[in-house]
Amino acid sequence: MSSPANAPSKSSVTTPERSLNQRLDALQRANEVRSKRAALKRDLKSGRQSIDRLLESPPEWLETAKVMDMLLAVPKYGRVRAGKILAQCRISASKTIGGLTPRQRAELVQALRQPRG
C-alpha cells in the first residue's frame, strides 16, 4: 500500500511560466476561435451551413467544440431532441467534435440526415 508521503504532491506539478507575449498570443487565438464559432452558429441557424457536412470534415478550430452546443445552434433542435439523437448514437453530451470516434461520427451524420417525423 502506498503512503501519502510517496504520492506526488500537487505543489510539485506546476505549469510552465508563460511570457506576456505567449499569453497574449493564446488569448488572441482563443478570441479568433470564439468569433469563428459564433459566426458558424449564426450560419447554422440561418441554414447557410449544414451540421452533417461540418461533422464529416470539421475545421481544426471546431474540433474542441461540444457536439451538443453545435446541435443546439441548428433550428428545431432543442435540448430534448439533441439529447435524444446523442443518446441514440451513444454519444455523451459533453463530447467534443474532435473526440468523436469514426462510428459515432458516422451514426450522428446518418441520424441528422434522416427526415424528422
TrEMBL record:
Integration host factor-like helix-two turn-helix domain boundaries: 45-110
Pfam families hit by this protein: H2TH_5
InterPro entries named among the record's database cross-references: IHF-like_H2TH (IPR055201), IHF_actinobact (IPR047806)
Sequence intervals crossing the membrane: none
Chain positions covered by the region annotation Disordered: 1-21
Xref: NCBIfam families: actino_IHF
Protein name, UniProt field: Integration host factor, actinobacterial type
Organism (species): Patulibacter brassicae
Species lineage: Bacteria, Bacillati, Actinomycetota, Thermoleophilia, Solirubrobacterales
Gene that encodes the chain: mihF
